[in-house]
């Protein structure tokens, strides 16, 4: 993928990626001292960010959670995104272009073992779930005032494509051919490389500007379900239990832990399932061990962000997990 010659400068190494604990099928950064296996996978899903759209710590908030994250940068989380990497083809795809996409692409560039922008300086494709700020606004950094990229494939629904085409500054990205929109249709499989394919699943959410999708991402050996945003499992025309049971890994909307963190709020307008309710719905799948289930997209109020609190303990005891920035899943 060609880029303007003046942009072919070295990319900085992302130094803030922290070492993370591991279990079978996933691991920390390959340069981490926590790595326990030298086995390499053809397809790697790297988690790039696990906070709600505004990040963690949250702008203008000085609650105990946010203060903890400001004092201890290892507690901070980037905005929601994952990368899907074909290590044999040396091709990298990012799911959602968050406002942290610059730092997140550094993580991808380092993980692919690249030393300079001459190898590649932008994703080989971007998959978009919907038009909320944490999921698409990072596209601007590949535009005229930024990298000035050339025709990065952006996979999105027709409604999302219309939003980008008809509203600035996104329309300029299309007009200047910084991005090339690729229309995807719910439940239709698309191949990205000989080893990676995905199926978009339409989900209910606050669809002010676009519709919303999650993805089933398939590698040569395993599958992952990624749904960072949904109104609620009961509003979906699919069974979350059945969908989870058909994949090896699931990274799901865990924006809020329980109603206890939102006193005085109208819970019917929250627009996300609570982790406590999701654990009830998916208890059998977690107990069976057939699918490893993670919660992501964590709001700064989330009780599970307290590393010493009872919420994290309960999640672990019930067989679930919190996704972490930098963790890897092998497909």
Question: Helix and strand layout, with pairings?
Answer:
Elements: E1 26-27, E2 43-49, H1 64-71, E3 81-86, E4 91-95, H2 101-111, E5 125-127, H3 133-136, E6 152-156, H4 158-166, H5 170-175, E7 179-183, E8 190-193, E9 196-203, E10 212-218, E11 223-227, H6 240-245, E12 249-253, H7 275-281, H8 283-288, E13 292-296, H9 310-317, E14 321-322, E15 328-330
Parallel strand pairs: 4-5, 5-6, 6-7, 11-12, 12-13, 13-14
Antiparallel strand pairs: 1-15, 2-3, 2-15, 3-4, 8-9, 9-10, 10-11
What report would you give on this structure?
The chain has helices spanning 64-71, 101-111, 133-136, 158-166, 170-175, 240-245, 275-281, 283-288, 310-317, and strands at residues 26-27, 43-49, 81-86, 91-95, 125-127, 152-156, 179-183, 190-193, 196-203, 212-218, 223-227, 249-253, 292-296, 321-322, 328-330. A hairpin with an 8-residue loop joins strand 9 and strand 10 (212-218). It is 20% helix and 22% strand. The protein contains nine helices and 15 strands. It is of the alpha/beta class and 331 residues long. Strands 1-15-2-3-4-5-6-7 form an eight-stranded mixed β-sheet. The chain has a seven-stranded mixed β-sheet with strand order 8-9-10-11-12-13-14. It has one domain (40-330): Ribonuclease Z/Hydroxyacylglutathione hydrolase-like (Metallo-beta-lactamase, Chain A, 4-Layer Sandwich). Mean pLDDT is 87; it is low at 1-38.
Summarize the structure.
The protein is of the alpha/beta class and 331 residues long.
């Amino acid at each position: 993928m060609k880029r303007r010659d003046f942009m072919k400068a070295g990319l900085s190494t992302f130094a803030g990626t922290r070492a993370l604990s591991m279990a079978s099928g996933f691991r920390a950064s390959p340069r981490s001292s926590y790595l326990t296996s030298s086995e390499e996978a053809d397809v790697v899903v790297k988690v790039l960010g696990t906070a709600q759209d505004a990040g963690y710590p949250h702008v203008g908030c000085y609650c105990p959670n946010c203060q903890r994250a400001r004092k201890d940068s290892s507690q901070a989380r980037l905005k929601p995104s994952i990368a899907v990497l074909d290590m044999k083809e040396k091709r990298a795809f990012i799911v959602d272009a968050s406002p942290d996409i610059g730092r997140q692409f550094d993580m991808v560039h380092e993980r692919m073992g690249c030393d300079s922008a001459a190898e590649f300086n932008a994703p080989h494709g971007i998959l978009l779930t919907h038009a909320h700020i944490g999921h698409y606004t990072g596209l601007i950094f590949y535009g005229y005032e930024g990298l000035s990229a050339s025709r990065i494939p952006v996979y999105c629904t027709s409604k999302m494509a219309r939003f980008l085409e008809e509203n600035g500054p996104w329309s300029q990205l299309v007009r200047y051919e910084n991005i090339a929109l690729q229309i995807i249709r719910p439940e239709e499989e698309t191949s990205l490389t000989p080893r990676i394919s995905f199926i978009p699943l339409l989900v209910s959410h606050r669809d002010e500007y676009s519709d919303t999708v999650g993805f089933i991402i398939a590698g040569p050996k395993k599958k992952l379900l990624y749904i960072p945003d949904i109104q609620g499992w009961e509003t979906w025309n699919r069974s979350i239990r059945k969908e989870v049971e058909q994949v090896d890994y699931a990274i799901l909307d865990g924006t809020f832990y329980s109603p206890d963190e939102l006193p005085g709020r109208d819970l019917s307008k929250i627009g996300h399932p609570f982790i406590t309710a999701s654990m009830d719905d998916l208890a059998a799948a977690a107990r069976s061990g057939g699918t490893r289930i993670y919660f992501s997209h964590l709001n700064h109020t989330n009780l599970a962000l307290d590393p010493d609190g009872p919420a994290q303990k309960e999640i672990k005891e019930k067989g679930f997990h919190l996704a972490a920035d930098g963790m890897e899943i092998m497909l």
